[in-house]
Amino acid sequence: MMKNTSRVQPAALPVQSMRRRRFRVATLAAIFALFALYVAWHEARGPGERHNDELPITQAHADDASQPSNAAGTPAAVAGGDLVKRGEYLARVGDCVACHTADKSRPFAGGLPINTPVGTIVTPNITPDPDTGIGQWSDADFLRAMHEGIGKGGERLYPAFPYVEYTKVTDQDVMAIRAYLKTLTPIHYAPPGNTLKFPFNQRWLMVFWNLFNFNEGRFVPDPKQSAEWNRGAYLVEGLAHCEECHTPRNFMQGLKTSSRFSGAVQAGWHAYNITPDKNSGVGNWSDDELAAYLSTGAAPGRANAAGPMAEVVTDSTQYLTQEDVGSIVKYLRSLPPISGGESRPRDQWGNPAADDVTTLRGTTVNAVNGAQLFIANCATCHNWTGQGIGASAPGAYPSLIHNSAVGASDANNLAMVILHGVTRTTKQADVLMPAFGTELTDDQVAAITNYVTKQFGNPQSTVTVDQVARLRTQQ
């Protein structure tokens, strides 16, 4: 009996292993079958299908609506009678021109390279040119691209095009943008192709990305909130796509929804935390300061827009109505505060320099010296004390004291401003700071950055020469 038992036991192990293997195969097959059914169901849903959640934003609070309105609060009769003008405004809200313009002499003709962790994506031509633009697209094609991230030929679009947010925009607003784009001058220009690494150059893989990072569907107003709040939510979560820059990414480069609006780094620039947290976010800003920043790019004693945000102000937010800006502020105020670990607000650091000019006078400097470089290159506009020139006038040179870029916990934005300068044109002022990237070496830029943060801002915020070298290559 002992011998027979010893022969049976080894034979039982392969049987158990085979059963486990068959179970795993069956499980994988079931998952694949469910996935295939999902894909078939999703593809079968035509872009012409109406959604019950496509309701005007003002209907979220019926007491506030005196007449039928569209999603952004414009009376339906006005929107119908002036569709192109409405579409131009909405295209401003979405800042379409920023991504779809590489050469200002060819607006909306695309060609702008966008660097991503998996390669470079080049934006397409969206002028009405029939061969290189979207002149042959139907309204259904345009709706499907905006709402589902699918191009005219059925190809999956990459999420550098923010359809993750645009899916929330109502049909009537999408069609208004479409009407405006049809009026643009057709530009015959074929942008260069994308340069993505394998397997990311396989568009069909976006099906899997969408499963985890995309929820198709229009914005649903919250009946418990006011019309103003709902309008702000519709703009911020939809066309304005604020999360694309201000929300960190997960490992798949999708938005990390658990940390919405808590800040992220994009192409070297830090898009700061805009939740109401009093230290890490904008909780200590007044409503008027937030509105002024969106409308002019400047909130004296708080921040001055630079880099991508300066472009957003120039091309988009300065054109928003006071009502829409107020709605955005209202919505941002309601977000859950998220702490980034800062011990004090970014704009509450710094003191004027006392005697650096006197100390350096007559001194021979034989090495890279941040104070000397600052006085030689920056003091003409920002004053050697760091207090700026012109106080809070529209064209003033901003103070480096109580300045978000100088008091931030990382010095990325300050170094990027020194390297690449600032260009911001609004109805109030034409702001220009020259780029010093071609004038100063990496170690000189690092020295100035570290002097400024130590003297006028957060002394714990520093950059290395290697970090500056990497930032120099960013767009």
Can you characterise this structure?
- With 475 residues, the protein is mainly alpha-helical.
- 41% of the residues lie in helices and 6% in strands.
- The chain contains 20 helices and nine strands.
- The strands form four sheets. A three-stranded antiparallel sheet has the order 1-2-3, with no helix packed on it. It has a two-stranded antiparallel ribbon with strand order 4-5.
- A hairpin with a 3-residue loop joins strand 6 (298-299) and strand 7.
- Helix 3 crosses helix 7 (171-182) and helix 19 packs across helix 20.
- The protein starts with a helix and ends with a helix.
- Residues 1-13 and 38-79 have low confidence and may be disordered.
Question: How would the blueprint of this fold be written?
Answer:
Blueprint: H1 2-44, H2 76-81, H3 83-93, H4 96-99, E1 113-116, E2 119-122, H5 139-148, H6 163-166, H7 171-182, E3 195-196, H8 206-213, H9 227-237, H10 243-246, E4 264-266, E5 269-271, H11 287-296, E6 298-299, E7 303-304, H12 307-315, H13 322-333, H14 356-360, H15 370-377, H16 379-382, H17 404-407, H18 412-420, E8 422-425, E9 430-433, H19 442-456, H20 465-472
Antiparallel strand pairs: 1-2, 2-3, 4-5, 6-7, 8-9
Keywords: Cell membrane, Electron transport, Heme, Iron, Membrane, Metal-binding, Repeat, Signal, Transport
GO cellular component, one term: plasma membrane
Binding site for heme c 1: 96, 99-100
